Amino acid sequence: MKRLLSLVLSLHVLTISAQHITWEAFLEQLTEEQAMRGEDIMETLGDDAQWADFIEELNELHEHPIDLNSATEEDFARMFFLSDEAVEGILRHRDYYGHIRSVSELAVVESVSWRERQLLHLFTYVNPQEEEYSDRWDFSLARSEVTADVSVPLYKRDGWPWARGMANRIRWDYKLSHHLQVGVRGESDAGERMFCRKTPLWDALGVYASLTTKGWMQNLLVGDYKASFAEGVVVGHSFRFGKMMGSQWRNPSGLKVHRSADEVNFFRGAAADFRLASHWTLSPFFSYRRLDAVIQPDNSINNLISSGLHRTDNELSHRRTVGSMVAGGHIEWSSNGWSAGMTGLFQRYDHQFLPGSSLYQQIAPQGHQFGAVSLNYAYRRRPWLFSGETARSFTAGKDGWALLHRVAWKASSAIQLAAIHRFYSQYYFSPYGNSFGENSKNQNESGLCLMADVNWDNSFALSACADVFYSPFPRYSMTRSSRGGEGMLQASWQGRRHGICVTYRIKSKERSDARYWSHRIRGAWSYQPSEIWGFQASAQTHLYRTSGSTSLGYALMGTSRLTAKRWQWRAMLSFFHTDDFYSRIYFYEPNLIQTFSFPALFYHGARLASTLRWQSASDIWMVETKFGTTRYFNRDEISSGPTRIASPWKSDLQILVRVRF
Question: Cα(327)–Cα(331) distance, rounded to whole angstroms?
């Protein structure tokens, strides 16, 4: 009877399902959120690496989707867009009705929204065979994968030979079911040297190993890894979602291997997850790394360098000059929608931090040793979600408090309201804290963000948010306290073949003791006549205003996608015109797998980007290329100093090869 009901329900929802969102459209929507975080460039340093790491993790999940009928709760936790109620509803539906025959069948699960079902199509599949999931130690099922890519500049910079302008990356991954993962990665950025005394191989090298079991030790990681717990106030290596995602999409929590090109935000050592009892888990971790910093004449440091670039002799002199030891852990209890836990972190550097002389640096950390401890708590029971974390940091005479609380109410499968409040005192400091907020550091900030999401008829969606924030102590370039606000309204409609999305954002903030206003409007129309071909046209304008000037920028862009058997072609052409850098425009463009970029377009010009992918019938070989070129209409040269290009053209060719064994 259950199987019959499942069949009837699946046939019913298949008749009403709309056209699914494409992978490119999903990435572009994410880019819209991240682009706004680049509004104040001095406060987002370090975010790009985490953003690229997050996108690479999504790419990995998209390339290797999870079977809905064998997915565990841990597998669903990787899908950040799923709410706890949605995961619970999917598991309950699967237990009652048995084998799921399509993602569309989940339309009958009230706790799974239309938006969540749309995204599930990108990261899951349904095994047509109703067979029991096997998690055996069968080495015949092991998979090994080697990926290498190189970026070749079709121009020459003034500061180094043409060959040094090439960037390259190589990665080897070995995976045995859910039990064992081993990997090695190497990367060199453009301008960095290879096979020399200071960098005998690649500039950045890393290894990782992960062992997963079903016993009392559930997970063991050795080498490079990342850790995130609770709301990320004390430890938060995961990418921090923006204001349109912070309420309904979960922040990934726990331990995971570090496989990406991010050279800054990770631990190097060992960590583990232990199940102490049926409702208790313990996650201790230890790390030791050498970090980049400028050593002052008195052997102190002002701050760490997070660019990861070692192109010049000066940059090489700062490479791995400071030793950092980290130890900590997280313990948590959870049962029937309730959870509570504690996180602790201790860090010691082998050089002393001394604040600089600027006013904004007076609240910077000081000393050799730093620590923080927090309590986290949550209640998740439909239709309510409440979670929070309260932390206290311990530094040399500058202890500080931090609090973050969020509450969400899911009035129905179509309506959700949420609010997030945060308070980070000016003296709060946790070296690896990364939680919700306006600034890149969880310090010297308080604010309240309100959000609403509405979906109608499985096709129309409306999202809105409003955020106000305040910094009591002067930030960078300020001589006094400052405050600001941001608002966003987005409306989208998705039909079987057509889709429309319009977004308006307004932001007001202070820089150099003066207030600026930023208005962004973006409209996009997509057309997908078939599964193999799709097209999108979009336009964007950006108005940047201060008390003494106004800057305007606008751009038009068209993208196209064509898939035929083992080939896939994507292309983007855009024309842009901005008065200056402040009115710059951000656009998502096609990229190679495991890479991501959304270049800032400014001044007058055009940008073309195109990718071509070929995959063998056996899925063993894959070759992908990308050609990108920018032509400026009002400039005869690009950049300055050693990175100067004596031409208005800037073109690059990227080649990626992947082999699976």
Answer: 14
Task: For 472-532, list the strands marked E by DSSP.
Answer: 482-494, 498-511, 514-527
The model's confidence at residue 44, banded by pLDDT at 50, 70 and 90, is very low
Q: Which amino acid is at 47?
A: D
Of the two residues 312 and 114, the one the predictor is more confident about is 312
Closest-CA residue to 57 (of 307, 271, 259): 259
Q: Is the confidence at residue 9, as pLDDT, over 60?
A: no
pLDDT of residue 202: 85
Angle at CA of residue 217, ends 123 and 53, nearest 5°:
35
Q: Which of 498, 410, 501, 496 is nearest to 462 (CA)?
A: 501
State the chain's mean pLDDT as an integer.
84
What does the alpha-carbon distance between residue 123 and residue 116 come to, in Å, rounded to a whole number? 11
In terms of C-beta density within 10 A (0-12 exposed, 13-18 middle, 19 or more buried), how is residue 277 classed? exposed
**Chain CA centroid to CA 255, Å:** 16
User: pLDDT: is 29 or 65 the higher one?
Assistant: 65
Q: CA distances (Å), 454 to each of 128, 241, 258, 493, in order?
A: 34, 19, 36, 12
**Spatial separation of the C-alpha atoms in residues 103 and 180, rounded to whole Å:** 29
The CB density around residue 91, as the number of other CB atoms within 10 Å, is: 14
